[in-house]
Amino acid sequence: MEVITKETVVNKLEEKGIRPSVQRMAILRYLLEHRTHPSIDEIYNQLSEQIPTLSLTTVYNTLEQFCEKGLIKAISIDGKVIHYDGYTHVHAHFLCTKCRKVFDIDQNFEIPQAAVPEGFTVSNTEVYYTGTCKDCLTK
Amino acid sequence: MEVITKETVVNKLEEKGIRPSVQRMAILRYLLEHRTHPSIDEIYNQLSEQIPTLSLTTVYNTLEQFCEKGLIKAISIDGKVIHYDGYTHVHAHFLCTKCRKVFDIDQNFEIPQAAVPEGFTVSNTEVYYTGTCKDCLTK
DNA sequence: TTGCAAATTTGTAAAAATTACAATTTATAT
DNA sequence: ATATAAATTGTAATTTTTACAAATTTGCAA
Q1: For B133 and D20, how far is CA from C1' in angstroms?
Q2: What is d(CA A119, CA B128) in angstroms, rounded to the nearest whole number?
Q3: Labelling B17: which of A22, A75, A121, B46 has CA 20 to 30 A away?
Q4: Are residues B42 and B93 in the same domain?
Q5: Which residue, among A122, A124, A129, would best test binding to B if mutated, counting the most B CBs under 10 Å from its CB?
Q6: DSSP 8-state symbol, A42
Q7: Is the pLDDT reported for residue A48 higher than 70?
Q8: B100: left (phi over 0), alpha (psi -120 to 50) or beta
Q9: What is the pLDDT along chain B (139 residues), one digit of tens a residue?
């Protein structure tokens, strides 16, 4: 687990015009420190230990706000759960259908957009791979 | 709306070793005739008119079975709803964040898989574009 | 045919996930 | 200090999904 300073977290929030409340800082920090694409549930359960009064509603609202502002990304690769990613640089994702883990995949190529119809505006492109991860294959 | 013969529907089901019950035929036919990537809700509501006793459970189970057998695809582009696609040939999808419609996009290029780690097996690759569609832009 | 066993579907109820919203708490600026 | 705005909480309502027993339908053998 990477250690992220409070300063980094505050800066990232303020860059997007979001006020750094205790809850927001905790949520963003969690996403930056845990690059495992956690679900709302995981985030809520983990942070409840540090912030016992934390409300599930706050987690929902905060993640939605972060997504809207482009601070984080919602990874909808798994139809069941939404996974959140604190890192928004261009990269793809891999879902293992056995263990349900989501992995980051370097995306060292350009995705052509030629096929998108005239008049459509693309704001985001995601590449999702599904399959079986190494661990699950060797078991 | 394209008209799909009963024969086509039955063949597709039997190819995958699925017995062609009334419900299964109706669901598959709906997906083949309506290329709008309907949600479970839409499928259930529409088909309930033809099959008044149709159960939501059956729709859930059937769609899951179809996906497992590779007869259809679940499009998880929209974190809120799962969209189902009766056409499984390689193509990408575009989600309009205004009207929430999902559009098919020709994918006339190969997606490199070089970046997937050694030892991982890829069974499916999806490209999802998000943005605004022509209709919503001109409004 | 008839009847049995397996497969499928139904309907209800429970569980889980999400949303709405009023009340409370916290932060900010005067 | 105090008023105002912003954010969070907690509960309840709503929606979505799952579990599962009962009922129905189907395929097949006698």
Answers
A1: 43
A2: 17
A3: B46
A4: no
A5: A129
A6: H
A7: yes
A8: left
A9: 889 999 999 999 999 999 999 999 999 999 999 999 999 999 999 999 999 999 999 999 999 999 999 999 999 999 999 999 999 999 999 999 999 999 999 988 777 767 899 999 999 999 999 999 999 999 8
The minimum CA-CA distance between B54 and chain A, rounded to whole Å, is 24
Nucleotides of C under 7 A from a protein CB: 7-12, 17-21, 27-28
Residues B50 and B100 in one domain: no
Q: Do A82 and B77 lie within an 8 Å CB cutoff?
A: no
Q: Are residues B63 and B12 in the same domain?
A: yes
Residue A72: both structure tokens together: 């984080």
The domain spanning residue A18 has which CATH number? 1.10.10.10
Length of chain B: 139
Do residues A19 and A71 both lie within one domain?
Answer: yes
DSSP notation for B84-138:
EES--SSEEEEEETTT--EEEEE--SPPP-TTSPTT-EEEEEEEEEEEE-HHHHH
Structural domain span for residue B24: 6-75
User: What CATH number should be reported for the domain holding residue B106?
Assistant: 3.30.1490.190
- The verdict on pTM exceeding 0.85 is yes
Give start and end residues of each alpha helix (H) in chain B: 6-15, 22-33, 40-50, 56-68, 134-138
How many domains, in total, are found in chain B?
A: 2
State whether residue B130 is helix, strand or coil: strand
